[in-house]
Amino acid sequence: MNRHRLHASTHGLAHGHTQGLAHGRGPARWQRRGLQATALALLGSGVGWLVVHYAFGAGAGELPHPAEPWLIKLHGLAAFFALFLLGALAAAHIPQGWRLSSRPRHAAQRGSGVALCVLGALLAFSGYLLYYFAPESLRPALGWVHAALGLAMAVLALAHGRRRRF
Prior knowledge:
By secondary structure, the protein is mostly helical. The protein has one domain. Helices cover 77% and strands 0% of the residues. The chain is elongated, with a radius of gyration of 19 Å.
């Protein structure tokens, strides 16, 4: 068994993961699929809440729409999964990608990867503030900042994932 495979197997990594990233294939399949499903849940529940809240509910001067609390609960649940997946990426994909980004073929990934990490931290922090600390007078503005960060994260994540294919 060569040293690379031995290293991967002793750390419990799937055979294809370490070599996959080394060959420009990105995170492991379970991470990629988990991120895609979680991103869809976050984007769908976040945009859904904004539409319901501002078109039909409390943001439109009406009583809160019955879907509002369910959309926020789904959004919060998806956020926990996103934090878990970010931790999984921090353990394997990010360090390996950082090493590979010194190669010209992968250099553009470093900037978008760092931006994704920063956006993820800002989203977690602004979501925490919205849930626990934001006074009512600041909630709408902070909510729009959080929504803009979320949309920027979605766009940048697509660009980051697609760059590796070129």
